[in-house]
C-alpha cells in the first residue's frame, strides 16, 4: 500500500517490520510542513529511503540539523577535509571493506546517536546492500518471561570491535590507535531493554559489534544468552533490505534499529557520506 501526503509526496512501505521509500521530495529544499510529515514517517517506519537526491555536504549537514544537534567528528572514520562532521565510508581498488557485523551505531559512547543520514556518492553496479532490523519488534516477539527477565539486566558496550580493524592504526612505537582512544571511551554499562524517547516502544538494545557481555553473568552464560538473542534478531521477518544507487539516501532511527552492511562487492569502488545526529537518551 502506498500512502500519499501533501499531494505529491508518497510513502511506500518496503517490508512488514520496518522501512519505507519516500518519493516526490527534494531533501535539499524542505519546508516545515513536508519535514514534519517526513519526521512522522521516520518514527513510524524507523528507516526511510529516498532516490535521486543531490545533496551537497552543506545540504547534508543542514538536513541532519533538522533532526537535532550533530555528532562531532568520528574518532576513527575518515571525514571530508572541510566538513569534519561528514564521515566518508569508502571502498576503493585494493582497499576492500573489512568484516561486517550487525550493529547499532556508537553504543560504546555514553549517549548513542539518535539517527544517521547516509548519502550514496557512487556504488557498484550490484552488491553492497544494507539491511536494517527492528529491535522493538524483536523484543515484542520474546516470551513474556524473557521480557521480564531482560528488563532487569544490563549489558556492557565497548570499542573492542575496532581493535585490529582497518581503522586501527599502529604508530611507530607499536601503540594501537583504538587502545589509545579507548581511554576516552571506557566500557559503558546500559540496560538491555530501553524505551524509545518518542514512540515509547521497548527496545532490545544490544548489538553484535559493540555489546561485549551481560553484567553479572559468567562469560559462558553471557555469550549463550547474547547469541540466542542475536539469532532471533537475524531472522528476516524483522528486516528490510535496501539496494543502493548513486544519490540514494537512508535515514534510520538508531534508537530502535541495528543494521548490517553486506560486503559482497570485493574492492569495487563504493563511496557514501554519513551525517549523524546526537542522541536524546542514555
From TrEMBL:
Segments forming domain TauD/TfdA-like: 11-276
Known EC number: 1.14.11.17
GO terms for cellular component: cytoplasm
SUPFAM superfamilies tied to this protein: Clavaminate synthase-like
GO molecular function annotation: metal ion binding; taurine dioxygenase activity
UniProt cross-references to InterPro entries, sorted A to Z: AtsK-like, TauD-like_sf, TauD/TfdA-like
Family listed: Belongs to the TfdA dioxygenase family.
Protein name: Alpha-ketoglutarate-dependent taurine dioxygenase
The organism of origin for this protein: Marinomonas spartinae
